[in-house]
Each structure stands twice: as C-alpha cells, then as structure tokens.
Amino acid sequence: MPHEMHIGLIGGIGPAATDFYYRRLIATFAARQASLELTIVHADTPTLLRNLTSNDQEAQVAIYSRLTKRLVSASADCVVVTSIAGHFCIKAFEAESPLPVVNLLTEVTRAVESRGLKRLGILGTRTVMETRFYGGITSATVLPPAGSELDDVHNAYSSMATAGTVTQAQRRIFDTACERLIQEQGAEAIMLGGTDLALAFKEETSEFPLVDCAGIHVDAIAKLARPQNRKREAARRPPPSVSNRPRPLSLRRTVLHHLGNRRVELRHLLISPHRHANVLRPFRPPVPRQHNFLRRHRRPNLCPGEALH
Description:
Layout: E1 6-11, H1 15-31, E2 37-42, H2 45-53, H3 57-73, E3 78-81, H4 90-96, H5 104-115, E4 119-124, H6 126-130, E5 141-143, H7 148-163, H8 168-183, E6 189-193, E7 210-212, H9 213-224, H10 227-236, H11 251-259, H12 263-271, H13 288-296
Parallel strand pairs: 1-2, 1-3, 4-5, 4-6, 6-7
C-alpha cells in the first residue's frame, strides 16, 4: 500500500462527530485500498462551549496548541478540528499551530460555490447560526432560524453534542426548523452547521437537500492525504514568513538574552572567552567543571565573591 498522510484529529467535540470522522475516514481509505495513518487527541465539549459563548479565542487556541503538540510527537502531518463550533477561533489557531490545519470553513465554501446554491438554511450552535457560518459563505445567502426557534435549535444541538445521542424531541425541533427555512424563507438546501448533526440527518434519507459540512470536510482530508495531492498542496502553500519562523539562537545570543540588564557590563567578557579564561561566572555558584577549570589555570583560591578585575 502507498504511504499516505498521517492525519491528526482533535476529537471529543463532540463524541458523535469524532465517531463520524473516524468511521468515514476508515471507509474511504478501505475503498481505495490505502492504509490509514491516524491519531486522535481528546478535547472537552463543555469547555469548548464555554469558550465559544464568551468568545475566549485565546483560551481555546491554547487548548488546540497543546493537543497539536501531542500530534507532532505522534508524527502527524496535519491537524483537523472536528467541530464547526470549534472553528470560531480557527484563524488564530492557524497562526499558532505547529502543523498545517485542514480548515473546514474553506472546504465548505468551495463546495457551496461548486453546487451553485444561492440560499441556504443553517442549523448549529447559536454562534454559528447568528454569524451565518462565521461569514465564510460569500456566494450564497445564509438563513438562520427566526425568533425563539434559533434558541430552541441551539439548546437542542448543544445537549445532543454533549451527550453524543439524539432524542426524538430534538429531531422534531430540527425538522420543524428545516421545514420553515425551506417553506417560509426560501432556502434551497439546509447546511448542517454542526458536525454532530450527523446523528440526526443522513444525505441518502433526507427529504430535502443538505450541505453536509462534516462530510465535505472528511472528503477533503481524504483527498489531501493522497501522496500526489500532498505534493501539489505543498507547492501551492506559500512559505512561512520570516517574522513567524522561529530563529535558532546561538550560544552567545542565548547567554546575552538571559543576562538582561547585565549584558552591557559583561558583554566584553562573553565575546572572546579565551581572552578572559580565568574569569568565573559571578551569577551562580561554581560547579565541579569550573573548579577543574580554575585548577587548570592555577587559580585554586578564587571564590565566587571575588571581584572580576
């Protein structure tokens, strides 16, 4: 089997969405007889929802970055956030992530444009609905449920995502909202603006057209994982800017950085250590290596408190 991209998933937000991504990736890779390299790390749904409600992007990005470092340790080649609600801070995360991010918003935007849809109803969390999919769809009008129905959809979705199961009452809320979006607001299709909505809707059995955002995302990941597509995507991706690229510090620059206010006083001692070979560092006690150094230079009685000159 050809070697394909090692995919890193930030899962758990929520459990059903993680299961959907996992099963669909397995089926896709099995269908093309390719090996699936996959690592999943767990994020917490209630924490995500709290950060989403308060728009605390910094806190959520810190969580994503910590989890992505685990994926780096597992040799993953990319990172995927398996939650549309979790994309509220995706731009900030892309700037911080040590791995390339497969952005769901970008992939869904491309799919909507290719289908030529002009009016889309949307279900999901309150933030996703009120911001009309974070303002990411520019080729179509995005229509959220009206009035108190938006709150009902949000509450039903949040409960479903946290539990990982859907109830009949929650199904009725979603179905009623979809019917009104199509009949009263003229939506051509319903955008599943929450990855956990895979629990309530299936494209093959739905009575109305769907834009399955999670399915679009998974298919884009699987396509990107092909070796030839990885090379093409890497060639298209602009190189990181010099300002964002970490600059390795030389030993001399590292020492000067940690000296702080003493760098002016001690800089001349560090530029050429061979000219001041018998100088003991005054800012920490001598260690055995320094004692050996002093004996070798015939200064056995030099103590840490002795003046430099």
